[in-house]
Amino acid sequence: MRLVAACAAGGLFGLGLLVSGMTDTGKVQGWLDFFGAWDPTLAFVLGGAILPMLVAWQIAARRERAILGEPMPARPDPVIDRPLIVGAVLFGFGWAAVGLCPGPALASLGFGGIEGLVFLAAMIVGMGLHRTALPRSNGHPA
Amino acid sequence: MIPDAWIWGLCGGLMIGCAAALYLLVNGRVMGASGILGGLVEGRRDWAERAAFIAGLVGVPALASLGTPAMTGATGNIAVLIAGGLLVGFGTRLGNGCTSGHGVCGMSRFSVRGIVAVVTFLVAGVLAMAVLRHGLGWI
How many Å separate Cα B18 from the centre of its chain? Predict the structure, then answer.
C-alpha cells in the first residue's frame, strides 16, 4: 500500500510538472532571467502547489500519524547554518545554468534525450560526491 | 488577458501540491525530489518506497508525453550539463532540499529553513543567469 501511494504521488507530481511547463528549461531559465525576457510562470506553479499543502499541513498538525501509520514528519529546528546557505547557492547556480532541478530532471527522462540523461547522471554523481565528502552534514530536513 | 502558460502553470502547480499532500497525509513523508532520490542513492532502508515514487515520477510523464512534442529544450553543451548536474546534485544534498522540498513543502508550513533556502537559491539563480547569459553569453 505504501508503495502504491508513493507511486501515485510520484506520478501526479510528474504530471503536474509536465502540465505546468516546468520540464521546459526555457520557462525555468526565463523565470530566473530577471534582467532579460522574464517569464513569471514559475510563480503560478509554486503558488498553486503551496495552496493544497497549506491545507495538508493543517490536517497533519491535528494527527499524530499518517493514514498508513507512519508518524508525521517532525518540524525541523529553525537553524540557519552554513550547509543550508552554501547548498542553496550551489543549487541555484546549477539550476540557472541548465534550467532543471531534481523533480523535472526525473519527470523529463522519457523525452529529455541524451541531454537529460547526462544531466541526471551528473546530478546523481553530485549527490554521491556529497555523501562521500561530507557524510555527516545531513540531518536538518526542510 | 491572462496568458495560457500561467493558467497551465497554476493547474500543474495544484497537481504538484496535491501530490505532496497525498505523500504527506498517506505516507507521512515530505515530498522532496532531491531527498527522495538522494536517499535512494545512499541505499536507505526505505529504498522501495523511494523507488516506487521515482517510478511514478519518471513513468507517468513519459507515458503522458507520448505522441506530443514534449521536450526540455536543454542545452546541448555537455560541459554545462555536467557542471549544472554536479552543482544541483551536491547543492541539494548539502542544503537538504530543492524546489519541491524547501519550496513547496517547506514554505507551506512556514519553515524558516525552507523560506531562507528558497530566497537563497532564487537570488543565486538570478545572479548566475545574469552573469552566464548577459555577462559571459554562455547559456
Answer: 15
Read off the C-alpha cell for B131: 552573469
Q: How many CB pairs under 8 A join A and B?
A: 502
Reported ipTM exceeds the 0.85 cut: yes
Rounded Cα gap, residues A78 and A142, in angstroms: 10
Measured between CB atoms, does B109 come within 8 Å of chain A? Answer: yes
Other C-beta atoms lying within 10 Å of the C-beta of residue B138: 12
The residues facing A65 across adjacent strands are A71
Q: Could you give the 3-state DSSP secondary structure of residue A65?
A: strand
What residues contact A61, with CB distance under 8 A and at least 6 apart?
Answer: none
Cα separation values, B75 from A29, A96, A118, B83, Å: 11, 12, 11, 12
Q: How far apart are CA A112 and CA A116, in angstroms?
A: 5
Q: What is the pLDDT of residues B25-69, one digit of tens each?
A: 999 999 999 999 999 998 888 999 999 999 999 999 999 999 888
For residue A18, list chain B residues with Cβ-Cβ distance below 8 A. 12, 61, 64-65, 70
Query: Which among A45, A101, A115 is the nearest to B75, CB-wise?
Result: A115
Tell me the C-alpha distance between A108 and A93, whole Å.
20
